[in-house]
Amino acid sequence: MHALASKIALKHVQDSDELVSRYGYSSVVLKHGCYLMFGGYGSTHRIGDSLVKVSMIGNQGPQVICEFEECQTTGNKPGKLAYCSLVQLEGSESVLFGGYDESCIENNDIYILKNLDAESPKYQWLKPTTCGSIPQARWRHSAEIIKHESGNPSMILFGGRNNDHAALGDCYKLSLTTFQWQKCNMLGDVVQASHSHSSAVWNNSVLIYGGVNFEDFAINSLYQISFEDTVENTVKFKLIRTDPELPASFSSSCVIQGDNLFIVGGVKWTPGMP
Q1: How far is CA 256 from CA 207, 225, 244, 253, in A?
Q2: Distance of CA 88 to CAs 26, 113, 211, Å?
Q3: How far apart are CA 197 and CA 219, in angstroms?
Q4: What's the rounded Cα separation, in Å, for the pair 39 and 12?
Q5: Residue 194: what pLDDT?
Q6: DSSP string for 104-153
Q7: Distance from the Cα of residue 233 to its chain's centroid
Q8: Using only C-alpha atoms, what is the Rg of the chain?
Q9: Distance (Å, rounded) from C-alpha 255 to C-alpha 52?
Q10: Torsion angle, CA of 191/194/196/199, rounded to 10 degrees?
Q11: pLDDT (0 to 100) of residue 43
Q12: 72, 122 Cβ separation under 8 angstroms
C-alpha cells in the first residue's frame, strides 16, 4: 500500500461561489474527466441541494482549468443534505444515501440519479421503495458498489454516525435490483465503529481506511471487506497490516490504481482540537 499527497491548482470559469466553495458535499466520478457534486455547505455555511457538474477542460501551465455548471434536475429531489454518500452504478445512474438536513436531522433514504441526456447536464431523481432490514439513519458513512457472481450489483454500507451514536460499526447490503436491505453478519477481525473513514473497491472487495471512533479519536486501521455469494448476508473483515504503519486520520480520499491504494490528504485529530 502506498500513500501519496499532491497539490494541484484548480481554476474555475464560473463566478458563483456557491457552486465552487463548498464542504460536506458528496461526489461521484463520471467518464471523460468529469464528476458530479451534490449538496454540502456553501460559502454562506448553509446546506444546499444543487447538483453541479465539474469538467476538466484543459491546462494552463501547472493549473488544471475546470468548469462548474449547475445541472437541471427533475423528479423526486432529495432536498438539502450534507455528508450523504453518492456512488456510481454502471451506465448513467448513481445512488445517494443518508446525510442530514438543515435541522441536523439524519435520514436513511435512497435516491437514484439518472442522466437523461449524455450531451447535457440534465438529470432525474427517483426515490425507490426499500424493504428488509433497513439501516439506521446516518451520515459520514461509507458506501460502495460491488457485483455478485450473478452480475447483480449491491451497495455495501458501513459505519457512520447519527444523533444517537458517536460512531456506528454495522454493515448492510442493499440489492440494487430489488432494493431490499440486508444486515450483514460480520466475521473475521474485529473492526472499530467509525465515521468519516474512506473507502474504495478492489477486486470486488471493499477497503476501509481510518476514520473517527466512538471516543472521538482518529484511527489508522485498514480493513478489507470480502463477500461470499454462497454464504448469504455474511461479510468477512480482514485487518491489513502495512509497513510502515499508516497515519491515524479521517476524511482522506482513497483511490485504487491497479493493485495500488493511494491515500490522499486527511485530517489528524485528537479530542479537544479546535
Answers
A1: 10, 15, 19, 10
A2: 12, 9, 22
A3: 9
A4: 19
A5: 97
A6: --B---EEEEEEEETTTTEEEEE-PPPEESPPPP-BS-EEEEEE-TTS-E
A7: 22
A8: 18
A9: 22
A10: 20
A11: 83
A12: yes
Coil, helix or strand for 83?
coil
Q: What is the predicted pLDDT for the residue at 206?
A: 97
Give me the residues of the chain with pLDDT under 50, please: 1-15, 274
* Nine-digit cell string for 102: 438543515
User: Does the predicted model carry a pTM greater than 0.85?
Assistant: yes
* Span between the terminal Cα atoms of the chain, in Å: 31
For residue 273, the model assigns a pLDDT of 54
User: What is the signed CA dihedral for 138, 144, 150, 151, rounded to 10 degrees?
Assistant: 130
H/E segment holding residue 56: strand 51-60
Query: 23 has which bridge partners?
Result: 41
pLDDT at residue 65, as a whole number: 80
